[in-house]
Sequence to fold (337 residues):
Amino acid sequence: MRSLEIKSLFNVPKLSLYLEKVDGAISKSLVSDNPFINEPLSRLIKSHGKRLRPALLIAVVFSQKKQIDQSVISACAAIELIHIGSLVHDDIIDNADARRNVPTINSQEGEDRALVIGDYLLAKACVEGAKISGLIGEKIASTIAKLCDGESRELASQYNVNRSQTDYLLAIEGKTASLFAAACEIGGMCAGLDSSSISSLEKYGREFGMSFQLIDDLIDLLSTAELLGKPVGNDLKEGVYTMPILLALSGNSRKRLAALLTNKKQIVLDEVVNSLVNDQSIQRTLLYAKKYNKLAVKALSKSPGDYANLIELPDAYLNYCLENLVAKKYRSTVSGS
Fold:
């Protein structure tokens, strides 16, 4: 599998160097003399992901030809700390054993310690934000609140075959898109842009974040544990019915799909996915993702700057996922959409 190259997606010179500085800021922020925090966090931080959200913030500042100074690095650290903290909480909710082939804190140290460490990470994000300015500190805190709002909506709809598409979209806007929006908005603030331009960037991040989550939900159905580095079909097991499922439940295959979902302990992922493929729900979800990508790019037309890198990003990310994270048996399903 070709790994996702953040550098090629953003085309920001020295991006790797900047992200190394972000990692350094995160490590410095998390210094503690408490081994019950240090040990699991050390494992967690070493297995870090793509740093997509900090890269997004850096790309916004770069588009304005502004310096990537310490305030930008601190802002990136704050954004990534929110993301990491939310993943720790997600792993508790999902009863996940591994993430990126590394044991989760809840599976290794227990749910109680994972909960505390997730809270610790979110608190440290607020500290990093407040170091820059009161306004950015407030934005970091409000973003955490939006994540909690989105997650609560999702939890309230578990195993609900009558969940509305509107409820789903509100949930992912909070739990995922709000952090993308915050990265772009704070990037605009660090670059000293006016409120109108910052608002356009915030919209870009939100629309891209919506697409990102739709793609993530598709990949959870269409990928394999080997390709993804974590178990697939977890949403189904946890009763989280995402857009492909909701589209099918609102159509002619509702009765058959509802019957497949009823047996919570023995859901056969292939049977569910085949049903979604046959009624075009997979393909229609992909069209939704592409629509949000177009809305993201359109938002940039209202803000000054050289956004060539950001304009190409949403579709580049989508294409990477379809080409590298979809199991071979489903690639023909998504290739023509």
User: Anything to note?
Assistant: The mean pLDDT is 91. Residues 17 and 203 are 28 Å apart (CA to CA). The radius of gyration is 20 Å. DSSP finds 18 helices and two strands in the chain.
